[in-house]
Design goal:
It comes from Dioscorea alata (Purple yam). By secondary structure, the chain is an alpha/beta fold. The chain is 11% helix and 19% strand. The protein is built from 4 helices and 26 strands. A 16-stranded mixed β-sheet has the order 1-2-4-6-8-9-10-12-14-16-18-20-22-24-25-26, with no helix packed on it. The protein has a 7-stranded parallel β-sheet with strand order 11-13-15-17-19-21-23, with no helix packed on it. Helix 1 packs antiparallel against helix 2. The protein binds 2-acetamido-2-deoxy-beta-D-glucopyranose (11 copies).
C-alpha cells in the first residue's frame, strides 16, 4: 500500500514519462529494495506459523528490506538481498518456494529452527548461492535434484533433518562444492559415484542414514578430501584402496556398517590421518604395523571386528594417541614379546582410552601397565585369558574412571590402593 501511495504521488509530479519511471524505480529501490525480493521475503514470512522471538516483526513496509532483521544487502545502493540469517530463532513452518526469487542471495542460514516440509526445488534458481545451511530443522521430503543448478554453491548443510529418498546423482556436477553434510537424516540408496567429480570436495558427512552399497572406488580420487564420515549406515564391500593414498585425509569414519576386507594389504600414505573409526564391521586380517608410522593419529577404533594376530609393538611412536580401542576382536598374545605394545604405549603421554578387552590376549599382563600415562581414564582389558597381577602402583593412574579386568586369570588380591583412585566410577573385576 505504502509503495503504491508513493508511486501515485510521483506520477502526479512528473511530466516526462520515461524520467518519471526512472525516478519512481529509484525511489522504490531506495525505499524498499527490489519489489521481487520484498514479495519473496513477505511470502516467506507469511508461511511462518511461529516466530517466538518476533524477528519477523521488523519485516514491514515502512523500512527497506535491507534493514529487516536477519536480512542483508551486500551493496547498499543496489538494495538486493544477498544474505538471509534467521538461525536459532525457533521459527516454525515451511520454507516458501518464493525464496527462489531472491536471485542475488549468496548465503542462507536457517539452521536450528523448527522449519518443516520440503526443501523447495526453487532453491535451484539461486545462481549466486554459496552457502546453504538448513541443518537442525524438521525438513522432510527429498533433496531436490535442482539444488545442483546452484553452480556457485560451496557449502551444503542439511544435517539433522528428516530427509528421505536418495542422494541425487546430479550433485556431482556442483564443481565448486567443498563441504556436503547430510548426516542424521533418513536417506536411502547408494553414495553416488558422480560425487567423484567434485574435485574441490574436502569434507563429506553421511553419518547415520540408511545408505547401502559400496563406498564408490572413484571417491578415492578426491585428492582434497579431509573428512569422510559414513558411520551408522548399511554400507558393504571393501574400503577402496585409493582412500589410503589420500594425503590430506584427517578423518576416515565408517563404523557400524557391513564392511569387510583386510587392512594389512594397505600401503599407508596417510600422513595427516587423525581419526580412524572402523568399529562394528567385519574386517579381518592383522592390524598393519605400518599404522604405527602415522604419527598424526590420535583416535583409532577398530573394535567389534574380526582382526587377528598381534597388536603391533611400535604404538609408542604415536605421540598424539588419545584413544585406542580394539575391544572384541580375535587379537592374540602368548609370550612376553607379544605384550611389547603395552610397554611401548607408556610412551603415549596423552592416552585417555585403552581397550583391548574381549580378545585372546594370553600370557602375562606386564606390570608396566602402571606406567601408562596418568591422563588415562578408561582401561578396558577384561575378558582375556591373561594371567599376572594388578600391581599396587595402579594407583598412579589417578584419572582412571573406568577399570575393567573382569574374568581374567589375574592372581592375588585386588590391591587396596584401588581405593585411592578418586575418579573411579566403574570397576569390573
Ligand atoms: C527485480 O529483480 C528481478 C529479478 O532479478 C528483475 O527481473 C526485476 O526487473 C527487478 N525489478 C526492479 C524494479 O528492479
Ligand atoms: C516497522 O519495523 C520497524 C523496526 O522494527 C519499527 O520501528 C516500525 O515501527 C515498524 N512499522 C510498522 C508500521 O509496524
Ligand atoms: C516468485 O516465485 C513464486 C513461486 O515460486 C512465483 O509464483 C512468482 O511468480 C515468482 N515471481 C515474482 C516476481 O514474485
Ligand atoms: C528444476 O529444474 C528444471 C530444469 O532442470 C526446471 O525445468 C524446473 O522448473 C526446476 N524446478 C523449479 C521448481 O525450479
Ligand atoms: C551450519 O549450522 C550448524 C548447526 O548450527 C553449525 O554447526 C555450522 O557451523 C553451520 N555452518 C555454517 C557454514 O554456517
Ligand atoms: C526416520 O527413521 C526413523 C528410524 O527408523 C523413524 O523413526 C522415523 O519415523 C523416520 N522418519 C521419516 C520422516 O521417515
Ligand atoms: C562426472 O564426470 C564425468 C566425466 O568426467 C561425466 O561423464 C559425468 O557425466 C559427470 N557426472 C556428473 C553427475 O556430473
Ligand atoms: C597410491 O599412490 C602411488 C603413488 O604415490 C601409486 O603408485 C599407487 O598405485 C596408488 N595406489 C592406489 C591404490 O591408488
Ligand atoms: C615406518 O616408516 C619408515 C620410513 O618410511 C620405514 O622404514 C619403516 O619400515 C616403517 N615402519 C613400518 C612398521 O611400516
Ligand atoms: C617414545 O617416544 C620417543 C620420542 O618422544 C621416541 O624416540 C621413542 O622411540 C618412543 N618409544 C617407543 C617405544 O616407541
Ligand atoms: C615405571 O617407570 C619407572 C620410571 O621410568 C621405572 O623405574 C619402573 O621400573 C617402571 N615400572 C614398571 C613396572 O615398568
Amino acid at each position: 500500500m505504502e509503495t503504491r501511495g508513493n508511486t501515485l504521488f510521483l506520477l502526479l509530479l512528473c511530466s516526462n514519462w520515461a524520467l518519471c519511471v526512472m525516478i519512481t524505480l529509484t525511489v522504490e529501490a531506495t525505499l524498499h529494495g527490489n519489489e521481487t525480493d520484498r514479495f519473496a521475503l513477505l511470502a516467506f514470512k507469511s508461511g511462518i506459523t511461529s516466530d517466538p522471538t518476533g524477528v519477523l516483526n521488523s519485516w514491514n513496509n515502512t523500512i527497506s528490506v535491507c534493514d529487516w532483521e536477519g536480512v542483508s544487502c551486500r551493496d547498499k545502493h543496489l538494495k538486493r538481498v544477498t544474505s538471509l540469517d534467521l538461525s536459532y530463532r525457533g521459527l516454525q513452518g515451511p520454507i516458501s518456494p518464493f525464496i527462489g526469487n531472491l536471485s542475488f542471495l549468496r548465503s542462507v542460514l536457517l539452521m536450528n529452527n523448527g522449519l518443516y516440509g520440503d526443501i523447495p526445488s526453487e532453491f535451484g534458481q539461486l545462481q549466486q548461492l554459496r552457502l546453504l545451511n538448513l541443518s537442525f530443522n524438521s525438513l522432510n521430503g527429498v533433496i531436490p535434484a535442482n539444488l545442483s543448478l546452484c553452480s556457485e554453491l560451496i557449502t551444503i548443510q542439511l544435517e539433522n533433518n528428516q530427509l528421505t529418498g536418495i542422494i541425487p546423482a546430479e550433485l556431482g556436477c556442483m564443481t565448486k562444492l567443498e563441504s556436503l553434510n547430510l548426516q542424521k537424516n533418513n536417506l536411502t540408496g547408494v553414495i553416488p559415484s558422480s560425487l567423484a567429480n567434485l574435485s574441490s570436495l574436502s569434507e563429506v558427512f553421511f553419518f547415520s542414514n540408511w545408505l547401502q552399497g559400496n563406498i564408490p572406488e572413484e571417491l578415492g580420487g578426491l585428492t582434497k578430501l579431509k573428512v569422510f564420515e559414513a558411520s551408522n549406515n548399511m554400507l558393504s564391500g571393501k574400503i577402496p584402496a585409493q582412500f589410503f593414498n589420500l594425503s590430506y585425509l584427517n578423518i576416515f569414519a565408517a563404523a557400524t556398517n557391513n564392511l569387510h576386507g583386510r587392512l594389512s594389504s594397505i600401503d599407508f600414505k596417510l600422513q595427516k590421518l587423525q581419526t580412524l573409526y572402523l568399529g562394528e564391521n567385519q574386517f579381518t586380517g592383522t592390524i598393519p604395523a605400518s599404522l604405527t608410522n602415522i604419527s598424526s593419529l590420535w583416535e583409532l577404533d577398530i573394535s567389534t571386528n574380526s582382526f587377528s594376530g598381534k597388536i603391533p609393538a611400535g604404538l609408542g611412536g604415536l605421540q598424539n594417541l588419545i584413544f585406542f580401542n580394539v575391544i572384541l576382536n580375535q587379537l592374540q598374545a602368548d609370550i612376553a614379546e607379544d605384550w611389547e605394545f603395552l610397554d611401548s604405549l607408556t610412551n603415549c603421554s596423552q592416552l585417555q582410552f585403552l581397550g583391548f578387552g574381549l580378545n585372546n590376549m594370553g600370557g602375562t599382563l606386564p606390570s608396566s601397565v602402571v606406567n601408562l600415562s596418568t591422563t588415562l581414564q578408561v582401561l578396558a582389558i577384561g575378558y582375556n585369558p591373561m594371567t599376572g597381577s594388578l600391581p599396587a602402583e595402579i594407583q598412579n593412574l589417578i584419572n582412571l574412571n573406568s577399570l575393567d579386568v573382569a574374568t581374567c586369570n589375574l592372581k592375588g588380591e585386588i590391591p587396596a590402593e584401588i581405593g585411592k583412585l578418586s575418579y573411579l566410577q566403574w570397576l569390573g573385576l
